[in-house]
């Protein structure tokens, strides 16, 4: 089977188009720190944000929040697309490292 220059160009264009669509989807679907904070506060039923950490994972960020709501603390991790990845909670006092 002989591969022609035209077929190589078509394959290259298809790969480039797929990459462009993927990058556009990442940029459109990712959330910012305020949206992540709102999700975390919703998960905890409100409260005070005690600490917030943002880590960069390629084209998007991941967010971690510690929230104190009354006598309960929440440690919440949220992906760059707004999905709650981890949620821990405990009673009494402030959350400790």
Structural overview:
38% of the residues lie in helices and 36% in strands. The chain is built from 2 helices and 4 strands; from the N terminus they run H-H-E-E-E-E. It has helices at 5-29, 33-44, and strands at 48-57, 60-69, 72-78, 84-91. It has a 4-stranded antiparallel sheet, covered by helices on one side. A hairpin with a 2-residue loop joins strand 1 (48-57) and strand 2 (60-69).
Largest sheet, spatial ordering of strands: 1-2-3-4
Q: Give me the secondary-structure category.
A: alpha+beta
What's the helix count? 2
Shape: rod-shaped
- Helix content range of the residues, please? 25-40%
Here the CATH topology of the largest domain equals Nuclear Transport Factor 2, Chain: A
Largest sheet: 4 strands, antiparallel
Radius of gyration: 21 Å
Classified by CATH, the class of the largest domain is Alpha Beta
Q: What do the pLDDT scores average to?
A: 86
β-strand percent reads: 35-45%
Say how many strands there are: 4
Structural domain count = 2
């Amino acid at each position: 089977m002989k591969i022609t220059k035209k077929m190589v160009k078509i394959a290259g264009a298809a790969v480039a188009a797929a990459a462009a669509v993927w990058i556009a989807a990442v940029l459109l679907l990712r959330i910012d720190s305020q949206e992540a904070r709102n999700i975390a506060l919703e998960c905890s039923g409100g409260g005070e944000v005690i600490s917030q950490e943002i880590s960069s994972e390629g084209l998007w960020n991941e967010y971690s929040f510690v929230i104190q709501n009354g006598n309960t603390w929440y440690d919440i991790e949220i992906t760059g697309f707004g999905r709650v990845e981890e949620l821990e909670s405990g009673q009494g006092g402030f959350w400790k490292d």
